[in-house]
Amino acid sequence: MGGVVLCEEQCEVSFELGLVHAYFPEAYSGIISLVWNTDFQQQLNTFSLNRDALARYDPLSITVEDTVFTWPTNEHVSDHTTERGDVHLLSNIRFHDKSYFALGTDFLHRIKLRLKARGTTYVEVAKNPRFP
């Protein structure tokens, strides 16, 4: 599957009303900064990304027991316009309650299951139906 594994312990994935949210402890947030070479923006409450370097932002994964949930990069980034009219490309990772981060996908259309015999179950979380 590749990508950045955000969490393998004390993580949680929930599905509800067309939404999927993954929660992971603050201790794991440094992995994102290290791999993506970007800082967490306190004023935006997320990571501001470089639009010209999207290829370097690996998919994000969270492991819950023997199941790996993966978010392709274009499923967790979007444009955000500030009150001053500045446009930022942001990940939808948000910091909550000064204790954990959440990665969400809205309007979940499907979950693709990839099962491996005698191994890990992979779940690709994607909302865009054009993906194979």
Automatic annotation (TrEMBL):
This is Uncharacterized protein. It comes from Opisthorchis viverrini (Southeast Asian liver fluke).
